[in-house]
Amino acid sequence: MFLDLQDVKTHFPITKGILTKKVVDCVKAVDGISLSIEKGEILGLVGESGCGKSTLSRTIMQLIPATGGDIILEGENLTRLSRNEVRKRRLDFQMIFQDPYASLNPRMTIFSTLSEALQQRHPQLKGNKTALMEAVVALMERVGLNPSFMKKYPHEFSGGQRQRIAIARALAPEPKLIIADEPVSALDVSIQSQILNLLLQLRDELGLTMIFISHDLSVVRYLADNIAVMYKGKIVEYGDSEKVFNEPEHEYTKRLLDAIPTMI
Question: Residue 71, class by beta-carbon neighbours within 10 Å (0-12 exposed, 13-18 middle, 19+ buried)?
Answer without folding.
Answer: buried
